[in-house]
Automatic annotation (TrEMBL):
Keyword Transmembrane helix attached: yes
Keyword flag Glycoprotein: no
Name listed for the protein in its UniProt record: Protein DETOXIFICATION
Family: Belongs to the multi antimicrobial extrusion (MATE) (TC 2.A.66.1) family.
Organism name: Triticum turgidum subsp. durum (Durum wheat)
């Protein structure tokens, strides 16, 4: 549940950069894309700090919510290895929106595919051969996210397609943070309210007489729901980009 909340919260907090990058690119303010990317990364990394604290104290928090000791212990072991992933996601999401605003999607798709293959191989080795179990699985997941972040950022630096939009690190990333945070927080609240009610079912399932079986069954249903959710987010991102560029084009002409 905590993992899903992290995704939703940071996804909502990063929604502002999607709008701003699309407007900046459509308005031919190419240098602002890099500034918005860095500004969003700063906001999301700061958001990740309290999330990391929650992860660190996940076991007592779950026990406080009435979950069984076995479930609380297993969940805490898994989320300990996901703490590095919090900050990887905080950087990855702005990078993706930075590239999508320029209609650059294939490099991210290739990088994600390669990371998936690497993730499957490393997960098999770490979980079954080395025997690290849940902690190993989560550590490999964090590593895979950082591989994606590093590879995408390397593409941005080296690709000629990003020369106008990425001009290097700038101190401007730390200016206008309150306004950026206000816009991000509004998006986060909206998205969180839309999705967190799913996680209430997870807590309720953990309070049933046979919580292990209940959570196993519910996790399958929620995983399928998450796949559908991610597919719709992809189409939504494409539609928003086209709409923003179309509105900006009309204003400029």
């Amino acid at each position: 549940m905590t993992v899903t909340r992290q995704y939703v919260l940071q996804l909502g907090m990063g929604s502002a950069v999607e709008t701003l990058c699309g407007q900046a690119y459509g308005g031919h303010k190419y240098d602002m894309l890099g500034t918005y990317l860095q500004r969003s990364a700063v906001i999301l990394c700061c958001t990740g700090i309290p999330l990391a604290v929650i992860y660190a104290f996940s076991e007592p928090l779950l026990l406080l919510l009435g979950q069984s000791p076995e479930i609380a212990r297993a969940a805490s072991i898994f989320v300990y290895g996901l703490i590095p992933q919090i900050f990887a996601y905080a950087i990855n999401f702005p990078i993706q929106k930075f590239l999508q605003a320029q209609s650059i999607v294939l490099p991210s798709a290739y990088i994600s595919t390669a990371a998936l293959v690497l993730h499957l191989l490393l997960s098999w080795v770490v979980v079954y051969k080395v025997g690290l179990g849940l902690l190993g699985a989560s550590l490999v997941l964090s590593l895979s996210w950082w591989v994606i972040v590093v590879a995408q950022f390397a593409y941005i630096i080296m690709s000629p397609m990003c020369r106008r939009t990425w001009t290097g690190f700038t101190i401007k990333a730390f200016s206008g943070l309150p306004e950026f945070l206000k816009l991000s927080a509004a998006s986060a609240v909206m998205l969180c309210l839309e999705t967190w009610y799913y996680q209430v079912m997870v807590l309720i399932a953990g309070l049933l007489p046979n919580p292990e079986l209940s959570l196993d069954s519910l996790s399958v249903c929620l995983t399928i729901s998450a796949w559908v959710f991610m597919i719709s987010i992809g189409f939504n991102a494409a539609a928003r980009f086209v709409a923003l560029n179309g509105m900006t084009w009309k204003q400029n002409n």
